[in-house]
Amino acid sequence: MIKEKGILFVLSGPSGVGKGTVRKALFEKDTELKYSISMTTRPIRSGEQEGMDYFYRSKQEFEQMIRNNKLLEYAEYVGNYYGTPRDYVEETLESGKDVFLEIEVQGALQVKENFPEGVFIFLFPPSLDELKNRIINRGTETEDLVRNRLLAAKEEIEMMDAYDYVVVNDEVETAVKKVQSIVRSEHCKRERVAKQYKKILEAELG
């Protein structure tokens, strides 16, 4: 029997696109996915648990992990580090579970650099095209404002080039179904399945 390895799925997109909402709705439906637990240097808060809410580490330990390339991505907010530990992700994938990471665009690009075999999903705001058309067709905005808004839209669109899939978040339910379809299709990809079969054949045939 083929023991299939898990896949790292990274859900990302511009701020305010609804990543957290889609992720929560997805996890209500799909109990097989494992949410990637982050690591932080901030103190543990009342009611939180190590290995459930975060992995809590000292600043020295965290910085050592940065030096040893033990984080898929990290950032510093208000004097504390936050990041995705490589070992946790790799061990979970080896156990056959898919890992799901919801993250800002800059963090996703770091993950792609450190873990290119992940599957990167860009959550796209449905209002961008509408915004574009409205700005151009309205004709009441100042030229500078139209330009600034279109530049911001262009930047968001350009970020999609680093991703494997784009899901428009028009309705949460629909977006979740699309993400589920991506998960299923990735597990059926020829190159993934072929790799597993080849390992078995090599082991059996020596």
Strand pairing plus helix content: what structural class? alpha/beta
Query: Number of helix segments?
Result: 8
The low-pLDDT segments are none
Helix proportion of residues, in percent? 40-55%
Domains, number = 2
Task: Tell the overall outline.
Answer: globular
Strand order of the largest sheet: 2-7-1-8-9
Output the CATH topology of the largest domain: Rossmann fold
| Run of helices and strands | EHEEEHEEHEHEHHEHH
CATH class annotation of the largest domain: Alpha Beta
Q: What's the gyration radius in Å?
A: 20 Å
CATH H-level name of the largest domain... which superfamily?
P-loop containing nucleotide triphosphate hydrolases
Assembly classification: single chain
List how many beta strands DSSP finds.
9
Q: Topology, please?
A:
Layout: E1 8-12, H1 19-29, E2 34-35, E3 39-40, E4 55-56, H2 59-67, E5 71-77, E6 80-85, H3 86-94, E7 99-102, H4 105-114, E8 119-124, H5 127-138, H6 143-159, E9 165-168, H7 172-187, H8 190-205
Helix pairs in contact: 1-7, 5-6
Domain Guanylate kinase-like: 6-184
Keywords: ATP-binding, Cytoplasm, Kinase, Nucleotide-binding, Transferase
Subcellular location: Cytoplasm
